[in-house]
């Protein structure tokens, strides 16, 4: 007869085994549950992941809301490839250093440079840079403006004639002014006229002959840029003088070898960098101008398609908010929604736009609809029916606002000044067709 273990008295083994077994059991039971839940969870999420890979879903979502850069680049590269070489048009008074700039960058013979006292260039000449067979840039050296022998109006016409020719060439204007020359009214007037007619042509202000203001003109050049007070004062004054006319300004001193200055082309790097900065801008502006109907349509559509995905989400949110049967309560929400939609669309078209600016765009585009907005809220007093009307109205308005914003930002991106009348026309039209679409 085996003796029954006395459960109370903790005999080491038996108790442990007894006692421990319970805990162990419950513990292991709990663990097994946990494991089973975790397993089940992992299993489910794996299956879900297999069904709907979140990353890929997230990726798709991002792609859905962003323009396909590759497509854009493809269109732009094609258009760019057809772009003729960019032209840099030099203008300035006689002996200001126009031909010296051409020489410095293209390496042509010094013959084109004058002796410094009488006008030298007699007619417009073109020089390819860096070489004829690889013309990245064409320098057009012109006759000095205000040269007594040459009728300035004739020269201006010639310049305008130049600019009118072959309009599909990107251009940069290089305005040359000597550091100590303040008799530049004529030049400024001419530059103003050119920029009025061709606002899209960026302008580089090149200020030359710096050593004429060195404490001692025979001194060699200091480290670039020269930190002489005299020069900085004169440079600032000239920059202010041509402020509205130039996009960048640079100090240079391009001499002839026999003048014994070192370097001969002082400030050449800075000049090149300024050009390099302006070129893409010039080309970008021209590329957009050049975008033939088809290409700009293609580009516009790519942006528009993505834009519409934003607009759709906001339209749904607006309709939901507007359906709330509390007259006027949702107006601030709707306005906030529409302002952030316009802000996002602005970003999509590469514009950095603050909420207040987005608000400004909303009022420019939708200004004419405020009265109707109030009407929309009033109708909510009609139980049930009112909210439905208000919702479809809000949806149509938000959609139309989005469409018009795309046109607005599209113009900006193309370097064009959006025309409010045209945009409001788009708004009215889009609103009418959207109202049809959202009429339930
Ligand atoms: N030291 C110095 N001399 C310059 C500079 N630019 C031009 N010169 C001198 O000024 C004179 C006139 O230079 P050009 O380059 O022929 O001037 P331009 O504007 O083409 O003159 P036109 O052809 O007459 O309109 C030459 O003797 C040049 O060596 C400069 O930046 N520094
Ligand atoms: Mg010249």
Task: Provide the descriptors you would attach to this structure in a database record.
440 residues, Rossmann fold, two-stranded antiparallel ribbon, 14 helices, 8 strands, elongated, binds magnesium ion
Describe the structure.
The chain contains 14 helices and eight strands. With 440 residues, it is of the alpha/beta class. It has two domains: 163 residues, no CATH class; 195 residues, P-loop containing nucleotide triphosphate hydrolases (Rossmann fold, 3-Layer(aba) Sandwich), CATH 3.40.50.300. The chain has a six-stranded mixed sheet, with helices on both faces. It has a two-stranded antiparallel sheet with strand order 7-8. Strand 5, helix 7 and strand 6 form a beta-alpha-beta unit. The longest helix is centred in the first third of the chain and has 40 residues. It is elongated. Bound molecules: guanosine-5'-triphosphate and magnesium ion (MG).
């Amino acid at each position: 007869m085996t003796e029954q273990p006395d459960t109370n008295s903790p005999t080491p083994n038996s108790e442990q085994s007894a006692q421990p077994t319970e805990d162990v059991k419950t513990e292991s039971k709990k663990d097994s549950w946990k494991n089973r839940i975790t397993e089940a969870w992992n299993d489910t999420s794996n299956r879900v992941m297999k069904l709907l890979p979140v990353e890929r879903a997230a990726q798709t979502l991002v792609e859905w809301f962003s323009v396909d850069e590759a497509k854009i680049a493809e269109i732009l590269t094609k258009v760019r490839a057809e772009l003729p070489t960019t032209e840099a048009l030099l203008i300035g008074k006689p002996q200001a250093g126009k031909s010296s700039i051409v020489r410095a960058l293209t390496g042509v013979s010094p013959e084109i440079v004058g002796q410094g006292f009488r006008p030298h260039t007699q007619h417009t000449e073109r020089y390819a840079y860096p070489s004829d067979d690889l013309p990245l840039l064409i320098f057009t050296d012109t006759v000095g403006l205000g040269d007594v022998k040459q009728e300035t109006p004739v020269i201006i016409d010639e310049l305008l004639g130049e600019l009118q020719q072959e309009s599909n060439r990107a251009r940069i204007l290089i305005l040359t002014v000597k550091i100590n020359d303040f008799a530049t009214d004529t030049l400024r007037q001419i530059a103003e006229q050119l920029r009025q007619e061709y606002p899209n042509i960026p302008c580089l202000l090149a200020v030359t002959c710096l050593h004429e203001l060195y404490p001692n003109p025979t001194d060699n050049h200091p480290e670039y840029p020269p930190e002489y007070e005299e020069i900085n004062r004169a440079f600032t004054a000239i920059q202010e003088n041509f402020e509205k006319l130039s996009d960048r300004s640079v100090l240079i001193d391009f001499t002839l070898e026999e003048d014994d200055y070192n370097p001969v082309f002082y400030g050449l790097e800075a000049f090149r960098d300024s050009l390099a900065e302006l070129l893409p801008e010039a080309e970008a502006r021209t590329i957009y101008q050049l975008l033939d109907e088809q290409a700009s349509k293609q580009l516009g559509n790519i942006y528009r398609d993505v834009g519409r995905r934003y607009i759709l989400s906001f339209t749904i949110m607006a309709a939901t908010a507007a359906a709330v049967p509390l007259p006027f309560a949702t107006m601030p929400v709707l306005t906030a929604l529409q302002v952030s939609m316009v802000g996002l669309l602005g970003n999509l078209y590469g514009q950095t736009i603050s909420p207040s600016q987005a608000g400004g765009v909303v009022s420019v585009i939708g200004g004419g609809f405020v009265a109707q907005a109030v009407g929309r809220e009033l109708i909510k007093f009609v139980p049930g029916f009112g909210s439905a009307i208000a919702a479809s109205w809000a949806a149509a308005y938000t959609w139309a606002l989005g469409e018009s914003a795309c046109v607005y930002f599209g113009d900006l991106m193309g370097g064009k000044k959006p025309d409010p009348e045209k945009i409001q026309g788009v708004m009215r039209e889009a609103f009418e067709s959207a109202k049809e679409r959202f009429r339930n």
